[in-house]
Design brief:
7-stranded mixed sheet, binds 6-O-phosphono-beta-D-fructofuranose, alpha/beta, 319 residues, 2 domains, 11 strands, Rossmann fold, binds adenosine-5'-diphosphate, elongated, 4-stranded parallel sheet
Length: 319
């Protein structure tokens, strides 16, 4: 193998740059050439790639977003788009491709594998909804962003003695809500993975007020539904002053945490090693501190599980 390619796809995640840096530097260390493909599968279909040297990844380890940019590419869902992508890879002389993204991006990688392209996936999404890895790149930074936001909302919530309903990202996953809710001391955490009873939550709110609580924070994962609707229902049921905050894309920005940079560096290097060893059609992940490679087929058949222990703990501690 002489040349590998690297691209970022789907929603960006802090730490993707650290992963790109690791792929480029590890590959060059082993005498390989690297082509950086811009704008994910859209750029692959357009043949938008260029060589990456050591200096091209200087000064990016601390930057959020992705210097290769990213895209959601409807054209790549069609076989004509995939065929064009394969022929561009051949033209660029790319013999192995590292794809940094989430579940959708790995399905794209599996389609390329079927067409004979050697691919390795690196989990990069704030949602942490990928099985066979304890964390995906960007999750830790997003959780810290949300925890910081909870701290700030808490200040004003206490001053005004209000209920705050905060909506966080995660698509169909409640992982961000659970981790940030536990770290931020939220009174209730609503996630799609576990059922909840709004009447019970409102009773807790009343009990809290009776005990002299000055505020309550309710964290809602977007997969549960709109925080605006939930906030309205809580206001009606409790007759307490309620405000809703939707954190949106600020969760996805900012400098990656040290954890995300280390995760990205390890997984980026591991992806290059896999391609060098002729091992492909897999996703690299970190489980209990160890790097492991899991075939895409297995990744697709398993759902990421949510820790009932953490969920119960968050409920107990917010009593
Ligand atoms: P993520 O990778 O973060 O889950 P998306 O679900 O938006 O983000 O997927 C990123 C891109 O991967 C899509 O825009 C599409 O080009 C490609 N993709 C998604 N699903 C498939 C699929 N089933 N087959 C081929 N390509 C796919
Ligand atoms: O997958 C990452 C994510 O931020 C989800 O949490 C969210 O639902 C989605 O992407 C938002 O997508 P977009 O940036 O396209 O609005």
């Amino acid at each position: 193998m002489r040349r590998i390619g690297v691209l970022t796809s789907g929603g960006d995640a802090p730490g993707m740059n650290a992963a790109i840096r690791a792929v480029v530097r590890k590959a060059i260390y082993h005498g390989l050439e690297v082509t950086g493909i811009r704008r994910g599968y859209s750029g692959l279909i357009a043949g938008d790639g260029s060589p990456m040297e050591l200096g091209s990844v200087a000064d990016i380890i601390q930057r959020g977003g992705t210097v290769l940019r990213t895209a959601r590419s409807p054209e790549f869902l069609e076989s004509t788009g995939q065929q064009q992508a394969v022929s561009n890879l051949h033209e660029m002389g790319v013999e192995g491709l590292v794809i940094i993204g989430g579940d959708g991006s790995f399905r794209g990688a599996a389609a390329l594998e079927e067409a004979g392209v050697h691919t390795v996936g690196i989990p990069g999404t704030i949602d942490n909804d990928i099985p066979f890895t304890d964390a995906s790149i960007g999750f830790d930074t997003a959780v810290n962003n949300v925890t910081d936001a909870i701290n700030k909302v808490r200040d004003t919530a206490t001053s005004h003695e209000r209920i705050y309903v905060i909506e966080v990202m995660g698509r169909t996953s409640g992982q961000i809500a659970l981790a940030a809710g536990l770290a931020g001391g939220a009174e209730s955490i609503l996630v799609p993975e576990f059922p909840f009873d709004l009447d019970e939550i409102c009773e807790r709110l009343h009990r809290g007020v009776k005990r002299g609580k000055l505020h309550s924070i309710i964290l809602v994962a977007e997969g549960v539904g709109s925080a605006l609707t939930i906030g309205e229902e809580i206001k009606e049921k409790t007759a307490m002053e309620t405000r809703v905050t939707i954190l949106g894309h600020l969760q996805r920005g900012g400098t990656p945490t040290a954890f995300d940079r280390m995760l990205a560096s390890r997984l980026g290097a591991a992806a290059v090693d896999l391609l060098r060893e002729g091992c492909h059609g897999r996703m690299v992940g970190l489980r209990a501190g160890e790097v492991l490679a899991t075939p895409f087929d297995e990744v697709f058949t398993k759902e990421k599980t949510m820790s009932a222990e953490l969920y119960n703990l968050a409920t107990i501690l917010a009593i």
